[in-house]
Amino acid sequence: MKTISLMSAKGGCSKTTTSINIAVGLSKTSKVLLIDLDPQGNSSKRFFANYMELEGICELLRKEKGYEECIYHTQFENLDIIPSKKNLFVLKKEMLYASHGIQQLKLKNALDPIRRDYDYIIIDNHPDIDLLISNALMCSDMVIIPVNPDADSVELSDSIEGMNLTLQNIREAIEEGEIPEMQFRILLTMTDNTKASRVFEDYLRSVYGDYVLNSCINYQSAPVKNKNKSGGFVIEKNDTRIGNSYKALVDEIRSIS
Ligand SMILES: Nc1ncnc2c1ncn2[C@@H]1O[C@H](COP(=O)(O)OP(=O)(O)O)[C@@H](O)[C@H]1O
Ligand SMILES: [Mg+2]
Fold this sequence. Notes:
Blueprint: E1 2-6, H1 15-26, E2 32-37, H2 42-47, H3 57-61, H4 67-70, E3 72-73, E4 79-82, H5 87-97, H6 106-111, E5 120-125, H7 131-138, E6 142-147, H8 158-175, E7 183-191, H9 195-208, E8 212-218, H10 221-225, H11 227-230, H12 241-255
Parallel strand pairs: 1-5, 1-6, 2-4, 2-5, 6-7, 7-8
Antiparallel strand pairs: 3-4
């Protein structure tokens, strides 16, 4: 059983797109639970148009509702989801001002009874570094940080800055004894044939070596944005390059012990 968080202190680097596609890909041969831990509910809305009306992660963490009311089967046979919506913002505030209990352990405690039902739990995170992120770190075995070439140089890149802030946050949490050692990997996303793309890849592979996943996800706008028919599940599209990139990524994730 493995819990994998998609995390970066930068928005728009493909956390959600990657979360939903690896969750679908892994579910072909494994039992998978996708947790939307972003109050914006971007993963949730890909599966359920009425996600705002659903019970979800907020109700589960508050213990207002049970597992059977917060976990939903998706259209994919072995994939379940715990959705989220805007009330997660309120929970975040409640956790910040709570006077009792260890707030960082809420998600871990909630997952412990159901962990055995799944082979993989995938957590789609929001970009802030806050108590929700601490909760995700406390129960993740591995963090995957997506980095997209978003500038001409790495020095000007928000996504490299987001990666560095996330790595620093993980390091501090380990040093303070909050979390045990954890695996991390860097995933190049939205790559193309530009010079910037090559500069980013060379930089990351030279500095972070084997921590950079071999698989890269290429930029391919049409299938990702065309959500009507496919819900943005590009991994289902055998005839697209991006679909095959995500399949290779899923194989690589499976191969990491
Ligand atoms: N490989 C890709 N090719 C083209 N567009 C992409 C790709 N990955 C993500 N996008 C688009 O970029 C935007 C941000 O992606 P998203 O997965 O929501 O990022 P995050 O969750 O990190 O904010 C979305 O509009 C998404 O459709
Ligand atoms: Mg997102």
